[in-house]
Amino acid sequence: MSTRTKIVVLIFGLAIFTYLVWDFGVDNILLNIRRTGWWFLPVIGIWSIVYVFNAFAWYVILRDHAKNIRFTTMYTLTVTGFGLNYVTPFLNLGGEPFRILSLRDTVGLHRAVSSVILYNMVRMMSHFFFWIGAIVMAVFLFPITPTFGLVLCAIFVLVLLLIFFFFSRHKKGFFESFLIWVGTKRSLHRVVSRLEPRRDALLKIDEQIKQLYNGHRHTFYEALTLEFLARVVASLEFFFILRAIGFTPSYAEALYINAGSSLILNLLFFVPFELGTREGGLYLVMESIGYSAGIGVYMGIANRVREFFWIIIGFLFILITGRRQVKGSMLDMIEANGKT
Predict the structure, then answer these.
(1) 283: phi then psi, degrees, rounded to nearest 5
(2) How many angstroms separate the CA atoms of 212 and 107, rounded?
């Protein structure tokens, strides 16, 4: 993505965000903030539990190959990594170089890279299963119009195809197939020339990815289950927000809101800081189940308050641990965003 495109997307997202805030009303937002009050404590606090599931999912992936790795280390790296992702304008991948460099001396560079890639693949697959579950639940619990039903069917089929694709990549590897495919495309010869010197390293990482699914399948499913449970627990955030401002949502509604909003965010991952897409996604999701659509705008802002708190916690972890790798990971993050 060129710099000009990034700027255009940023302006577009900011315009949507501004319109939604203006449409809902600043006074309404301030009123709901006052109503939320102490409810911000459980909204923020529930993520301390979500991060336990996230960290444990990553921990079990590494557990068989790094006996000396501590769960507390994985937890602090998880929180800090997500914090860096939140402040990364594009693609939300700023925390991944930090995680890799922080583990490099403990488990080796290739193992650190493969564990981060594997964790993100498992995390993505947990999203797929969560979306499938939410669609099935919506069909039985919520009134579905014919048009919305067709949309849900299309999403259901697409997600099933993505699940099949990701399972095949876990079984057969990712980089080997990608290198073969790229090699058949003359238009991608520049990509080939850049990847060729790194072929051996990529294939080694690929072997470790295949090893998890083919040789340690119980570990793979354990990590996948933990990540799925993280999605379920994270839905409490929406439940608490709605309760705080005077609604009586069911937990099924909270699950649906979480699934629907995360689906839209992942489809529009290229919008910097999720400006407009988060609030707009929640706007549409809330409307689809009969709530006032504008409530979604406030929910998105409440999400950002929670994120800001955990960004601070993540950076405090960096200061407390005093990791020397931070400088290198931040430079890698800046370089990666400059090439995106």
Answers:
(1) -55, -50
(2) 16
Read off the pLDDT band of 247 (50, 70, 90). Answer: very high
Q: Which tokens belong to 50?
A: 């979500």
Cα–Cα–Cα angle for 257, 304, 113, nearest 5°?
Answer: 90
Question: Cα separations (Å) of 305 from 28, 55, 102, 117, 265?
Answer: 16, 22, 27, 28, 17
Domain that holds residue 210: 3-339
Least confident of 30-44, 97-111, 218-232: 97-111
**Looking at residue 216, what is its pLDDT?**
75
Whether the per-residue pLDDT at 311 is higher than 60: the answer is yes
Give φ, ψ of 270 to 5 degrees.
-80, -10
Domains identified in the chain, total number: 1
Q: Which residue has the tokens 């991952």?
A: 269
DSSP run (H or E) holding 86: helix 71-86
117-120 long-range Cβ contacts below 8 angstroms, 24+ apart: 117/174, 117/205, 117/209, 118/61, 118/208, 118/209, 118/212, 119/57, 119/58, 119/61, 119/223, 120/96
